[in-house]
What we know:
The chain is α/β, with parallel strands linked by helices and 470 residues long. The chain has helices at residues 14-17, 30-37, 53-67, 78-81, 92-107, 123-126, 136-151, 164-172, 187-214, 235-258, 264-276, 324-328, 350-363, 387-405, 451-468, and strands spanning 7-11, 71-75, 111-117, 157-162, 217-223, 226-229, 302-305, 309-313, 331-333, 339-340, 347-348, 369-373, 378-379, 411-417, 431-432, 436-438, 447-449. The longest helix is centred in the middle third of the chain and has 28 residues, at 187-214. 53% of the residues are buried. The mean pLDDT is 97. The structure holds beta-D-glucopyranose. Beta-D-glucopyranose binds at residues 13, 16, 162-163, 166, 223, 305, 373, 417, 424, 433.
Amino acid sequence: MFPCDFAWGAATAAYQIEGGWQADGKGPSIWDTFCHEGGRVCEEQTGDVSCNSYELWEKDLACIRRLGLTHYRLSLSWARLLPDGTTEHVSQKGVQYYNKVIEDLLSCDVSPMVTLYHFDLPQSLQNRGGWKAAAMATIFDSYARFCFQTFGDRVKLWITINEPYVCAKLGHEDGIHAPGLKEPGTAAYLVGHNMLRAHAMAWHSYDSLYRPTQGGVVSLAINSDWLEPLHPDCADDIAASRRCFAFTLGWFAWPLFVTGDYPETMRAAIDTQSRKLGYNGEPRLPTFSKHEPPVFGTADFFALNYYTSRKVKAGLECRQGMSMKSDRDAEEVLDPEWSICGVAWLAVVPCGLRKLLKYIKDTFHDPVVYITENGFSQVGPLVMEDAQRAEFYKDTIQEVEKAIGEDGVNVRGYFAWSLLDNFEWADGFSSRFGLFHVDFSDVGRKRTIYRSGLEYAKVISKYKAMYSKP
Ligand code: BGC
């Protein structure tokens, strides 16, 4: 049974839906640059217009109301608010836009959950070294303070950074996300480190300067698959799946919730590999300075993005060269029983979410949890009667209910990804995650609810009705 104040939500991110990439003085972000360079995104698509939510916000609001959401998770475009990334220049038009969004939500009784950073660094900050630069932490802190100061009287749920793992790995190791750097085995660790420092500084700013009057909560959204050994009795597979957890979920959750430092397994694996390679430079996994605000304890809740599961096996990978993959030294495989939805990486495993929630409860001291993203994509011929996705949401929500009722996990909210079909990063518009279809060939970007959206709306209204009964 879900608690009566459970957050029923859906999520989006600024670059994926807003468009208006140059509107009203907005500065360019690394995703604008990355898409415009060409050769990076499916069919050279860009987020220049996307769902055009910058101009069509009222249409999004109508979708939110149609679903009956109690919460809506959106992200702020840093470069729309601060075109060069610094608080020296504030765009009042940007401030007005988000003020309107927030006020419209509140007037419809929908609580905003606001993400400060969802992959779209202002390009001017990338030009100063981006997330690899240590200075980024204090620059982010100034931006965060600006947002708390400007919107915090009305926003009570904050996410500082969305998925540092994805920013670090896909953007700086694999080069398939902006800023497109391929520096295997080094840059991602540095980026992850600076993101944790930035998050911690912003959390401390909120805690001391804003929480006393604003009373909200702040966290960082961590993505994780559910991982389990391919052969549950094989010691090597068990160790490999522990290592995989350490290199994904643990990388960020361990410092925040357990020790203030990276998982020992992760550091040991990287150090071993460095020695093997005869690497003598600075430790690739940085250490936290005692002179900076501590990272430990800087998450007021656990913000989890869960999409899929993997089985893990050991020993087959050759540990050659410098890369995160050889540091991790474990191979992830799919269970042939799992069906795949649209994109190849997304095996449909709703029960993995329940297992992961239990793992989080046991490992990270029973935190309050919000599932800040979870979804299912459609690729190929368009199906408005998307029964498979409707089924997926029903099954997943049941698993969350069991996690709460049977495992005692303190889950307070669930946000479907995504409200709308949108710009799915390197996959462009080919992969559709929306509860609403968006017609990208229509100037008005018509939104039409999918069957899965109707079903999600029914679930929400069922629970709302239960609570309103005398
Ligand atoms: C991201 C979203 C993305 C979704 C589906 C998450 O990694 O936060 O921006 O669209 O997954 O790929």
